[in-house]
Design a protein that fits this description.
Strand order of the largest sheet: 1-2
Number of domains: 1
CATH class: Mainly Alpha
Oligomer: single chain
Order of helices and strands: HHHHEEHHHHHHHH
Number of strands: 2
Largest sheet: 2 strands, antiparallel
Structural class: mainly alpha
Helix content: over 70%
């Protein structure tokens, strides 16, 4: 068993990773609450945005800040375009159909990335942020500001989104659409506009998450595309409803994933962390529901 000192660096990296999962999970939850769509293309959109940013920096010699903006705008515009074109047609479809439709977008983007950025050159690609070079010590652990930004951004975005949904007119309209789309439209809520804001906001978060994960994990299309599974697991643990519980679940997923790294017997199984935690949480929640129903019947 590794010593406590062996685990300390992975606490830092796990919290940073959890912060990005929280950022992603909030986008998935908000979009689901507004449109009923589970956005499975979230990771692919962020991955392609990060690869575009890398190409702009290394081939077009564009300023780094411009490449980062393009990455985020790419995520926002692709997601908005998808929601604008396919959102109305999917509005009355079952949840499974909506999810499979976004899976189609993920496969299209994944194929485009494999065509434009071949996997054979993936090892030589790296997208690093300037904040990687600014470090400080917590005890004996070196922390860089990219990790701090990743954790802080996840928490701040979650808090700001919660406040937006509760205290603004547009947030109230978004919650009304989430409860009943047709009744909200009858009452004068601009349903299409509200849904467009949800799609656009989710895309912005996808681009930001892709940028951070490309730095923290790896600039690899496959890795970044399927890291959405961890964010989706956090959202599922929160039952696709609570933003606060999504953040907590995301931090736990990130921590457990990285804390398994120094344990040699479990390192190869750490990628199962999101599935196991989501399954345990869903079993616990379903067990509580069964118990509450049995009490009501009694």
């Amino acid at each position: 068993m590794p010593s406590w000192q062996d685990f300390q660096p992975f606490i830092v990296s796990g919290l940073a990773l959890g912060g990005v999962y929280a950022l992603s999970g909030v986008g998935i939850v908000v979009l689901y609450r507004a449109t009923g769509v589970v956005y499975l293309a979230f990771g692919a959109v962020g991955a392609m945005g990060a690869l575009i940013a890398w190409s702009l920096i290394n081939h077009a010699h564009a300023p780094q800040w411009l490449a980062w903006i393009v990455c985020i705008l790419f995520g926002a515009l692709v997601t908005l375009a998808y929601g604008t074109v396919f959102g109305p047609a999917l509005a009355k479809r079952p949840p499974l159909v909506k999810a499979v439709a976004t899976l189609g977008l993920m496969l299209v983007l994944f194929g485009a990335m494999d065509l434009l950025w071949t996997t054979s050159g993936g090892a030589s690609r790296a997208l690093t942020l300037p904040t990687d070079n600014d470090t400080f010590m917590i005890g004996q652990v070196q922390v860089n500001y990219t990790q701090v930004i990743a954790l802080a951004l996840g928490i701040v975005i979650a808090a700001a989104t919660g406040a937006f949904l509760r205290y603004t007119g547009l947030g109230t309209a978004m919650r009304a659409v989430a409860n009943d789309r047709e009744i909200a439209g009858t009452l004068g809520v601009p349903v299409r506009r509200v849904e467009a804001v949800a799609w656009f906001g989710c895309g912005v978060l996808a681009g930001a998450a892709g940028l951070l994960l490309a730095d923290l994990v790896a600039l690899d299309a496959t890795t970044l595309t399927f890291l959405v599974i961890s964010s989706l697991a956090a959202a599922l643990i929160a039952r696709l409803r609570s933003i606060a519980w999504t953040v907590v679940a995301a931090l736990v997923v990130g921590l457990v994933h990285d804390l398994l790294t120094p344990i040699q017997s479990l390192t190869n199984y750490r990628d199962m962390t999101p599935f196991v935690l989501a399954a345990l949480a869903l079993l616990a929640l379903s067990g509580r529901q069964v118990m509450s129903l049995s009490r009501e019947e009694a």
